[in-house]
Design brief:
The structure is a homodimer of 271-residue chains.
Chain A (H helix, E strand, L loop, with lengths): L15 E5 L4 H13 L5 E4 L8 H6 L4 H4 L3 E3 L2 H5 L4 E5 L10 E2 L1 H13 L4 E5 L8 H5 L3 E3 L12 H15 L19 H16 L10 H13 L5 H16 L21
Parallel strand pairs in A: 1-2, 1-6, 2-3, 4-6, 4-7, 5-7
Chain lengths: 271, 271
């Protein structure tokens, strides 16, 4: 699941991610990797404990060098956000304030709207151990918090950045159901092709006395056709099935059947 | 941002997470932590390279012991999913097959529907280095893939599990805009309270000759009232502002003003 690819589009835009007093270089690197996966590129650090640059961060970033190389360091949070127009603070703890509290989906939608309007935005993430101070939260416009398990709320900063980056990316898609690749296109079968499968199968079974007793044949045919019809097989799939039936129908076994094999079914399928 | 809390509801239900031949105990632990954050609890391992149990996994799980303690190990993927009704395979690579490919949002919605209908489901995640084989993907019903940066697709298994767990959690919410806590409730102000603020402020300014020249006063009052009105201040906020105006209006400074201080504004606000 990895690899930069220089021939494909490198998305690098959107809100700045601001880490306040991060402690471990590994975490900063994982944050850069999370950002790069979802098209963010602007990382700002306020007073990183172990200094900057950091080889541990670069290593953990897993080749997100375009993020690491442009990371900027600030002495305090005010300087880190002074050029921005709108800032979210992430927090897991209730703050008992008047500041609006948003879900990641709503926050990402707001960030995308402001991005499209030309505003500069950012998202604050606090220290590994205890997050942001109330004074730091007060510098932001709104709060964003994650819908976590009430009895197990333990997101680290790289995970929190990953989720916000992912929601940001999704707001840029025309359709949340869109996927980067699709299955091989299949042509829907025509009824003529479906009827062809019915006749092929029923003739081969009839020739072996499957429809027994004869009075039950109409009901058995109904059931068999219902099983096939409800699947909505494509043209290609019908072709696969006809190949299977032809093979079973025409050719003798090349080796004797094992007794009690797993695939063995009841002889008569009208149960 | 951490801590289990035994007095709050521990959510532990939903699809099984199946890791195929995971290598590092740390990754298994981070997967357990990601799952626990978003209410999943059933972890299955197919042939973990370094065996099981794993102290590294337990340590990285950050107290997600309820997941680690119940993790089950299987010899092969068939056994690991034999009791399930519906299985997704996660993959970042195009597979050129007929299997439907879904986005995380669509896959999570499908998993929630099947969960509510009483079906047992699972999600497969491949090896750290190279994911799932085609034969393993073939055992699943559908494929799920993430909307990543085309030129930087580098999600590790713990990140991929985090995103699917998060989408699963969201499908259980009545409203994606819901948040675990809300700001202090505020009462909308009445027009009488807004007019009270207008008068209070304008009287204090008028007493200082702010509205100058007098011919401009009506326009200046209009501008001032527009600035206040468009904010939609709450009752509590209007009360805060009236306290500020009272303080500025009634009391003398206790220390001399610094020259060139940052907060100084032009004397006349009608620009």
């Amino acid at each position: 699941m990895s690899g930069t690819n220089s021939e494909r589009e490198l998305i690098a835009e959107g809100p700045a991610i601001i880490l306040v007093e991060p402690q471990l270089g590994e975490n900063i690197g994982m944050v850069a990797r999370a950002m790069a996966n979802f098209g963010l590129a602007e990382l700002r650090l306020v007073n990183p404990r172990d200094g900057w640059p950091s080889e541990k961060a670069r290593s953990a970033a897993s080749k997100a060098d375009h993020v690491i190389d442009q990371t900027r360091v600030f002495q305090n949070l005010e300087e880190a956000i002074e050029d921005l127009n709108f800032v979210y603070a992430t927090t897991a703890r209730e703050r008992y304030g008047f500041k609006p509290v948003r879900s990641p989906v709503v926050a990402a939608t707001t960030l995308r709207e402001k991005f499209r309007a030309g505003e500069k935005t950012g998202i604050l993430f606090g220290r590994e151990r205890w997050g942001l101070t109330n004074e730091e939260v007060a510098l932001a416009d709104e709060i964003v918090t994650f819908p976590v398990n009430p009895a197990f709320a333990s997101l680290n900063i790289a995970q929190a950045v990953l989720l916000m980056s992912y929601e940001w990316m999704k707001t840029g898609l025309d359709d949340v159901a869109a996927t980067p690749f699709q299955p091989v296109e299949q042509r829907p079968s025509t009824k003529e092709q479906v009827f062809g499968l019915f006749e092929h199968l029923e003739e081969a079974l009839d020739a072996r006395g499957y429809f027994h007793p004869p009075a039950k044949k109409p009901k058995m045919v109904d059931n068999l056709r219902a099983v096939i019809s409800r699947r909505g097989f494509s043209e290609q799939e019908i072709s696969v099935f006809r190949g299977v039936i032809s093979s079973l129908d025409r050719f003798p076994r090349r080796w004797p059947k094992k007794t009690g094999s797993a695939g063995e079914a009841p002889e008569n399928g009208d149960a």
